[in-house]
Amino acid sequence: MRKKIAVAGGGAAGMMAACAAAEVGCEVVLLEKNEKLGKKIYITGKGRCNLTNACEPERFFSQVVRNPKFLYSAFHGFDNRAAMDFFEREGCRLKTERGDRVFPVSDHASDVTRALTRALMAHGVRIRLNSPVSRVLLDREGAACGLQLADGGREEADAVILATGGLSYPSTGSTGDGLRMARELGHTVTPCSPALVPFEIREAWCEKLQGLALKNVELVLFQNGKEKYRGFGEMLFTHFGVSGPLVLTAASYYDPSLTKEAQLRLDLKPALTAEQLDRRLLREFEENKNKQFQNALDKLFPARLIPVMTALSGIDPEKKAHAITRQERQQFAGLICSLPLTVTGTRGFSEAVITRGGVATKEVNPSTMESRLVRGLYFSGEMLDVDALTGGFNLQIAWSTGHLAGMGAAQAR
After folding, report:
1. Residues forming CATH 2.40.30.10 domain(s) in the chain
2. Angstrom distance (rounded) from CA 396 to CA 401
């Protein structure tokens, strides 16, 4: 008699878990609350779906911010190469771009979902759409034995996999259902907060720069007076603060439980030493010696940034460049390499790429993804208290933990 597995959640982790269990001969039913599978996949990578990263294992683990060691078995059992092979085999041709980011050749996230759906169909997985799950069913011995649906229906099973996601992008169905179910079964769910999310900034001048992108800048995040993150790259000013790849990465190291307020320092010229920057300012002021200060900065900053830097410098904007004192020049250099911004918080889950927090990893067997508290119950994907930086790493966590949960559930006695 075939073993029956019930999977709650038809996102990245849930679909991979269902594929893995069905491939080794299990009868699998996949329950999805939405009208279609992979709803969140469609919006990842701005609709292109950065589905993994073609890096070496050491770099993969270095990009996992919380609990990387928990992922050792999952990743080595189904790593980025295995994920790429899976999608190529299912007809989704791939390409690798800057930073080893892997995308479908078509640049269409829908091709990733189609590949997974083809695999599900090929292995006979029964897919139930518009089927939200309300709770995990337990037998007399306290082991998972199926799922209760919101409409009162039931799906009995020999093992259950929860892959309902976290709290980010709730419009895609990630509303914390699985986390609630895990709590009801006695699991610890660590505090959840938005991650890979833009910062809200106190300084009003940020709004004046809305839409301005800065490349090749260095950003440092301080919280409680300690440096939490330092990185180099691209950022964007918005009507509420700052966003862009560099900011999203910094947000993964921001801990709202410590204090809401934090400090950012921007180095607008990180390629220059203090001496080089001073010489550069001297040269600019010499070449524009008869111009007003506010008109002598064209080669230093984007046009929209000049009025802001002029105002923050404290130097009279109409002062002639040749009249700027050494002290004023050095203070201005200090502003350029350490432009201060005050973080007042992050945007909400509706703008967060992923969720920080989830089912405590100490309560999950890393070799199988089975709950240490409830026999026959498995977790995968964003439900777990594991998260990584941008670049395809979070979807790889979904593929790896989903595959391991599917295999773990299939092979358990």
Report:
1. 195-269+341-346
2. 8
Q: Which two tokens stand for residue 184?
A: 């009801």
Contacts of 273 (CB under 8 A, 6+ apart): none
Q: Can you count the helices (H) and strands (E) in the chain?
A: 12, 21
pLDDT tens-digit profile of 195-249? 999 999 999 999 999 999 999 999 999 999 999 999 999 999 999 999 999 999 9
**Least confident window among 150-159, 254-263, 282-291, 378-387:** 254-263
Written as one string, the DSSP assignment of 215-278 is: EEEEEEEEETTEEEEEEEEEEEE-SSEEESHHHHHHHTT--TTT-S-EEEEEES-TTS-HHHHH
The angle subtended at Cα 33 by Cα 67 and Cα 166, nearest 5°, is: 20
- 22 conformational bin, left if phi > 0, alpha if psi -120 to 50, beta if neither: alpha
Strand partners, 226: 223
Q: What is the pTM of this model?
A: 0.93
- 8 A C-beta contact, residue 33 and residue 133: yes
Q: In degrees, to the nearest 5, what angle opens at C-alpha 132 toward C-alphas 384 and 152?
A: 125
CA distance 165 to 44: 14
| Beta pairing, strands 126-128 & 27-31 | parallel
277-339, what's its fold?
Answer: Helicase, Ruva Protein; domain 3 (1.10.8)
Domain 4-192+357-411 CATH (choose: 3.40.640.10, 3.10.450.350, 3.50.50.60, 3.30.1360.130): 3.50.50.60
Share above pLDDT 90 across residues of the chain, in percent, rounded to a whole number: 94
User: CA 166 to CA 174: how far, in whole Å?
Assistant: 6
Rounded distance between C-alpha atoms, residue 327 and residue 320, angstroms? 15
CATH fold of the domain at 195-269+341-346: Elongation Factor Tu (Ef-tu); domain 3 (2.40.30)
Using CA atoms, how far apart are residues 82 and 77, in angstroms rounded to an integer? 9
Of 138, 130, 115, give the one whose Cα is nearest residue 30: 130
Token reading at 383: 């439900």
For strands 241-243 and 199-201, give the pairing. Answer: antiparallel
Domain limits, CATH 3.50.50.60, in the chain: 4-192+357-411
Longest dimension (CA), the chain: 90
Q: Give bridge partners of residue 409 from the DSSP assignment.
A: none
Q: Are 371 and 379 in contact (CB under 8 A)?
A: yes
